[in-house]
Structure formats: C-alpha cells, structure tokens
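fyi for ur records
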Amino acid sequence: MNKLINVGFGNVVNSNKIIGIISPDAAPIKRMVQVAKDKGLAIDATCGRKTKAVIVTESGHLVLSSLLPETIASRVNQMEG
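which gave:
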C-alpha cells in the first residue's frame, strides 16, 4: 500500500519509493541535483524556498524539499512504525 509523506507545502512523496534523504550542502550533491535538473528528473517541491533536503527515489528522480532531512526521516519512520 502506498504511504504518502508530506515533504512541505502540501507536496507528498510515496515513502515506499524513497532510497535516501540527503542534505544538499556538499558539492557532489549539488552536481547530482544539477544533472537531474538538466535531464528533467528533478522535482522542485520547495515553493521558492531554500532547498534543505534532497530525496532520492527508486526511479532516479530527485525531490527537492525545504524541510530538513531529519524532519522528513522522522515522518517516514512514524508512518512505518
């Protein structure tokens, strides 16, 4: 069954498809986000705010969120627990 996690501003992601939730501060992650944007695989769910978390999905899409990675991880853990 699909469990949807709120990643901010009413945007949701299927928690069963999440591979990782990472901080966008490191240079390799910034490059990964830029490549995803160029390929059309980046989904911007920040609503114009600063990106604080990058969610990597099974399909290779990156979801950009303005919530902290810890916040998203706790929401995923609450749904599973």
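Helices lie at 27-39, 69-80. thats all i got for now
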